[in-house]
Design a protein that fits this description.
Blueprint: H1 16-27, H2 51-64, H3 68-72
Helix pairs in contact: 1-2
């Protein structure tokens, strides 16, 4: 059994997407904790809720050079940078 933290709220038993997210968070070494020792902080840190959110953060980690734990703790993902700035088709001329 793994200690998940004081702020952990277990998903419903049959919700596999949410349990997959919990597994990824805990395997990355993160916990569901408020980082203020006194408990007077703004609330628990962000953790992904679904496996889709985990996958998006893992893609961002690979793209941005972040560790898994850093990526899973991100509330907002960095925007992907598009390279090439050119269109795939030429702009039509106005007549």
């Amino acid at each position: 059994m793994i200690y998940a933290g004081h702020d952990f709220a277990a998903p419903r038993r049959g919700d596999r997407r949410r349990w997959a997210a919990v597994t990824a968070v805990l395997q990355a070494g993160l916990r569901y904790e408020n980082f203020e020792l006194c408990g007077c902080g703004p609330g628990p840190a962000y953790r992904p809720h679904t496996s889709a959110q985990v996958r998006a953060r893992l893609r961002a980690a690979a793209r941005e050079g972040l560790t898994t734990a850093e990526a899973l703790a991100l509330r907002d993902l960095p925007s992907p940078v598009r390279h090439g700035g050119t269109r795939s088709h030429p702009r039509r001329r106005a007549r």
